[in-house]
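Lab meeting, action items carried over

1. Structure of the two-component assembly. Owner: GW. Status: complete.
Input record:
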Amino acid sequence: MKRLALVLLLTVVAVPGAHAQTREVRIDIAGGGRRTQLYCEAFTAGRLPAGAPEARQADEVLANDLEQSAVFLVSRAWAGQPPFDVQAVSGGRWKVSGGQATLEGEVRDFPARRPILSKVYRGPAADWRSLVHQFADDIVLQFTGESGVAGTRIAFIAIEGRNKELWVMDLDGAGARPLTRDRSIALSPSWSPDGSLLAFSTYRDGGSPRVYVVPAAGGKLYPVSVRSGLNTSPAYSPDGRELACTLSKDGNSEIYVLDARGGSPQRLTDNRAIDTSPCWSPTGREIAFTSDRSGSPQVYVMNRDGGNVRRLTYEVGYTDSPAWSPRGDLVAFVSRTPAGFDVYVCGADGTNARLVVSGGSNENPRWSPDGRHLVFASNREGPYALFISDLDGRPPRKLDTGGRTAMSPSWSPSASRTAVAVPTNAPNSNPGGRP
Amino acid sequence: MRKTPALLLVLTVGLVALFAAGCARKATEAPPTPPPAPPVVQPVTPEPTPVPVPETPVPVPSVTAGDFTDVFFDLDSYTLRDDAKLALDRAAKLLRDKANVNITLEGHCDERGTVEYNQALGEKRANAARDYLVNAGVSAARIQSLSYGKERPFAEGHDESAWAQNRRAHFVLR
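Predicted assembly:
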């Protein structure tokens, strides 16, 4: 306890300039704000054990994370001289010994090189990438007031011939692995809010699709809704206690809320039309969904109890696949085009719909936990692959799925922190090593 | 010695069962792919005569999946067209005549729709076909419906002709 208090105190003392800077460089996502020019200097490293991750690998992971954050324009010291308008410099020391990796990360302003952020990250060498991701996320936090998403994961559906399997990978494509090997059709993954579970729909039992849950770290899957007819489109509530999904056990596809184990179904819609694709508002008080009750698919919003149903937007026709932003102020959705779908974003009240992704077909948009990005599936460059839009008018970036044809992405909640992070002045650090 | 006729009978029954199972599976895997007929009114063709079966000690189903014509739909629609009703009238007669035949109706969609919406749309199509058969006197207990949405297309293309092939309720014997 004493040490924790010391650490907190030192944090405040060590980086007095940081708080003053935070407001100044806060990024406005709606306006597609300016990006901060950041120059990544290579980590210095002493002699590393054979087979240990090299400092250069860590450099690249960090530079890539910062680039993908959409907060920074990144230039790499190992690729050339800094541009004239650099605003900040990152760097630090990289050590690996005794199976432990240590990153002493630093960010300084430029050209004065006053410290902005200085922290030590320590963890198992096998998990070294997550140390770098945490440093990247702290840098974003320092500049925007909100942690980055470099440590998050993406669940997706990999198309393998006629089969579709559920996969998960780090945001940067590392660590991709299958969570199902059913040689069946898995669809529509949804993360539990603590990031430990994925609910999805699957045809693995033969017959109609059922909702199953699998640990996100891999392991045994188990059924949560095996009612007759459709069991599709699961979505965990923000508190993780409930699952909204589509069931047709009563003869027609309707939205239900189940407890997280699949019991006590409460029916929310009662309509002869199709009702599907439920998605919670971040407060859990409202649910957006798709219905063709007006003759063609449109996104609607209803209260958690099924009351007060209203069409989301009249500004765009044939809408589907709603995704409520984590801040609650925006809803992303798709609208049909001759080529497939475009992605739109509008206010949660349905106003100010704007096109954010077009070209080819763009489906299943899902928000990053910081609300700064949308991931979606698209055939814009050929077979279906995953892309990220930063909502700023720049072209979407393709995610690395190891060449797998991929659909139905779902972005994990913010990363849980596994590595120890302390300010550089704490015991075992090396303040003298700072330039 | 006395066991031989019994053994022969068992073997024969086994072979016939295998043959029948083979037929059913083949029919499931190789569905008929008639193009979506324009709604031209045709006279109802007489019921195809069952293939004569060589004399065996047990009856085999005289209906195959090939005797059924799949039901096709318009874009975004689960309304039965006139050609769909003709196909279902024929199917209803077959099913009324062969009370031992049970079916699964698979609902399928073209690729222009989201995964989840198409799962629901496919079910609407399968159920529309099922309800028509039930109204035509087929017991609901003999019909299962199942939706594959856009997940199991019959035609892999990305044009109107492929899409029209993929919007269907497909008969499978079970």
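2. GW to write a short summary for the group page. Key points so far: DSSP finds four helices and four strands in chain B. Strands of chain B lie at 71-72, 103-108, 143-149, 168-173.
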